Amino acid sequence: MIALQKVGVSFGTGATRIDAVRDVSFVVDAGESFGLVGESGSGKSTVLRAIAGLIAHARGDIALAGKPVGRRRSKADRKLVQMVFQDPYGSLHPEHTVDQILVDPIAIHRLGDAGRRVARALAEVGLGPEHRFRYPHQLSGGQRQRVAIARALILEPRILLLDEPTSALDVSVQAEILNLLTRLRREHGLTMLMVSHDLAVIAHLCERIAVMSHGAIVEQTTAERLATSTVDHPYTQELLRSNKGFRREEGEGLCPSTPAKADPLQSIT
Amino acid sequence: MSDTLLTVRDLRVVYPGEQEAFVALRGVGFTLGRERLGIVGESGSGKSTAGRAIMGLLPRSARIEASELRLGTTDLLRLDERGFRRLRGKRVAMVLQDPRYALNPMMTVGRQIAETHRTHLRSTAAAARKAALAMLEAVRLHDPARVYDLYPHEVSGGMGQRAMIAMMLIADPEILIADEPTSALDATVQLQVLAILDELVRRRGMGLILISHNLHLVSGFCDRVLVMYAGRVVETCVASRLAEARHPYTRGLLASLPELGHRRPELPQLQRDPAWLADTAFP
Amino acid sequence: MSGVPLARTGGRSWRDWLLATAPASRRQARLGNWYRSWLAFRRNGLAMTGLAIVLLLIVVAAAAPLIASPDAAILQSLSDRLRPASAAHWFGTDELGRDIFARIVFGSRITLAIVAMVAAIVVPIGLGIGLPSGYFGGIVDAVLMRITDIFLAFPRLILALAFSAALGPGIRNAVIAIAITSWPPYARLARAETMTRRKAEFIQAAELQGASPLRILWLQILPLCLSSVIVRLTLDMAGIILTAAGLGFLGLGAQPPTPEWGAMISTGRDYLLDQWWVATIPGIAIFIVSLGFNLLGDGLRDVFDPRSG
């Protein structure tokens, strides 16, 4: 469903050139849920944006649903792949009601029957008709993210890209959104590609996971292998260790013993 | 207990609104000794408001009431803005989530730390510089002399947060309030910053309040945890035994977290009970 | 429930309908949003004063023939020239014996017309140049902004003078002259607003859905720029009125016997020492209206953008 062959993205030229993504290749099968995990600056979000067609100067080959997609996407290409962004506050137009936000894609693709489609999309993400004519500032973070998911699904895409969809949400809301995504994936047979820095979240939703660092994939693994800590690459092992959280004993390991004058106040005042 | 640094009893914070007042805190009480106290809760639980109330950093419109709000022998309820200014940095310090917003963009990192030292300890420029350099070293920044001359936008998130900690600890405060100090950092950097915080606070015998939404982080790092919900402390427990928490809210939060070693087809969702709002007697 | 409340028993239910947390139609949602802004605006006393002045100007302009006789503004009566204020002539008479009150009342129509026409020309040009410039960037931006810079480089009044002189005196040419010199700041403002929004995730989401650039500019970016453009325009109104008055004063704007306030000051200055009211009354009118627009603009800015107060 998604095939990347040696995809690269750089920003800037000459001395200021940054290779954000270098020769990334992977394949995601139809109906599969694939995860990209890494720390900030690893290039994981850039890969997602390249697949979405938001980066026109991406190098390499991207194929969606068996067809290579070019720099300029046709409307049909656009309909095939949709995206949910990280920040539910920044991804909805502040002066459009939920209704306008959902009707706009229907109008672009001339799908017709807007009223019923919007009602159905809202019901599907667990929002009632009372939310339909509210502005984003009248919604909670979780409700906004539901609207963003409804907007992505209203075009009935086959691929859903998720860019840290729960990292800006509270823990209890995160569980609701993750359950919603699980259900929608099952009901619509969606192929999902999720980006996150949170190993637990990504392993919850995805079967196969690629670990990214400095613009390249260092290891492709599975959720099971992450769960049992049977990973090969040292970077993945380090990520797993960090993910376990702070332990005082380990904390001391992280701080090699300091020189005698370590505490300045003892030596100065 | 003679070692009590901070006493908060029945703290209420109300924001008067146009239509109706918003009650941010409805009777919060705790004491802080020379320990690491965690405050966890979701957005809107009032955990940050509690920290800011102690620092005297709430907006002027906020109405603050408490039967007791005391830092050592200082009654914080009677303190005016000038009194708080003398207090901040010297006796209570605060580390915020994003160092890039908390540091002055027009001044080098080192100078800001030195200025803090001069303001609170009335030291000479040379002594302040020496102290700032030593402090930068204490937060394990490689090459402190170089970092000293960098501007906030030139340092990474982890470096910035270390510099922030250095600045906050240089006047040797009794209490440090850290509001989501590592939320903006990558997991690996997060651990390093926490380790530095842990070591410095322990060595100086300070009291630390760690405010966070991250239950795992708080239970691993702190000695004691307060769980807040809708402006109230619903549960207090020993941090290492957070997993055995009794309040349904705490239990619900813990259950709704995805876990690496324990994959479930569906995460249990938190069912909020209106009774939690009324419930004050829960231990 | 349809979009309209079923029972409108007094103001209370209108209020409830407007402030409903779950509006039932787009129209109700939008009106509710406006109403909330109005509630915020209403608390600002100075802004309300400004609004009252601007409304007064509009009412006076609309009802001018009912307030004063049109003849009194034009008809000369040399026997009654330069009379001070009296019951017959509230603001006195000018050097040709015309009633200054009537001239002020009818002059408000000209002021309002100038302001409205300048706004109608300046805003579309400013947005039309600023939005694509900020959105597309690159060569489009470079070309459009250099054009803007050229217009920006000339001092406003001087360029307006040159245009008026070239096109010939008259209100219409004065409006064109003012408009030509006033649009560049709007293009820059629209460009800056567009650039800050250009990378917003909701714009990316629209691009992902296949929205054309024109659609994004029109539906997504324009509504966001509009509020700051309106604020800017309101604050600029005073300047526009003064420029129009200045052109009138120099004889390049409205021509006699049109009761334009600037032209009235111009003729009145000969009698400033002995018959002060001839020049002073229109001056006060210009001052009050300019102040009104400024107060209104400040209030609007507070409502639209509470951060930059």
Gist?
The complex is a heterotrimer of chains A (269), B (283) and C (309). With 283 residues, chain B is α/β, with parallel strands linked by helices. Chain B contains eleven helices and eleven strands.
Give an account of the 3D structure.
The complex is a heterotrimer of chains A (269), B (283) and C (309). Chain A is α/β, with parallel strands linked by helices and 269 residues long. Chain A has a domain at 32-49 and 72-241: Rossmann fold (3-Layer(aba) Sandwich), CATH 3.40.50. In chain A, 38% of the residues lie in helices and 23% in strands. A six-stranded mixed sheet of chain A has the order 6-7-8-3-9-10, with helices on both faces. Chain A has a four-stranded antiparallel sheet with strand order 2-1-4-5, with helices on one face. In chain A, helix 6 links the parallel strand 7 and strand 8. Chain B has a domain at 92-172. Chain B has eleven helices and eleven strands. Chain B has helices at 47-55, 81-87, 99-102, 109-121, 125-138, 144-148, 157-169, 187-204, 215-221, 248-255, 275-278; strands at 6-15, 22-32, 36-40, 63-65, 68-71, 74-75, 92-95, 175-179, 207-212, 224-229, 232-238. The mean pLDDT of chain B is 88. Residues 1-8 of chain C have low confidence and may be disordered. Chain C has one domain: MetI-like fold (Orthogonal Bundle), CATH 1.10.3720. Chain C is mostly helical and 309 residues long. The relative contact order of chain C is 0.13. Chain C has helices at residues 11-18, 26-42, 45-62, 64-67, 70-74, 100-136, 138-153, 156-167, 171-198, 201-208, 213-249, 261-268, 277-304. Chains in contact: A-B, A-C. At the A-B interface, helix 6, helix 7, helix 8, helix 9 and helix 10 of A face helix 5, helix 8 and helix 9 of B.
